Amino acid sequence: MTTPSEPAGVRYIVDDVAAAVRFYTTYLGFTLRAHPAPAFADVVRGPLRLLLSGPQSSGARATPETSPTPGRNRVHLVVHDLDAEITRLRASGLSFSGEVVAGPGGRQILLTDPAGNLVELFQPAGR
Description:
It comes from Nonomuraea longispora. The chain is α/β, with parallel strands linked by helices. It has 3 helices and 8 strands, in the order E-H-E-E-E-H-E-H-E-E-E. A 4-stranded mixed sheet has the order 1-4-3-2. It has a 4-stranded mixed sheet with strand order 5-8-7-6, with helices on one face.
């Protein structure tokens, strides 16, 4: 096992790796770390390493066929102005799953990537 100081990653299974790379780097501020094959790419944003695995990648092939995609899990990104982000992303033609939800900790909305995976945009209370 790696040491706790080494970065951990989140794997998202995607239908189209190139489309996923464009989505995360163009709209959400990720940087392309590696794209060694059409079936896989590695993007980073701060300490978050997101592994984008296409249908032919070993990561996707290891996922049981009975696993629902997408799941209820999601990447959580903190934003300073949720309303401005929603306006910016909608103007770019991106899709959201549902509307803004508010709670004691803040406000959030779910964005969907090209494969239908969820990304939570979250504005903490008090901002």
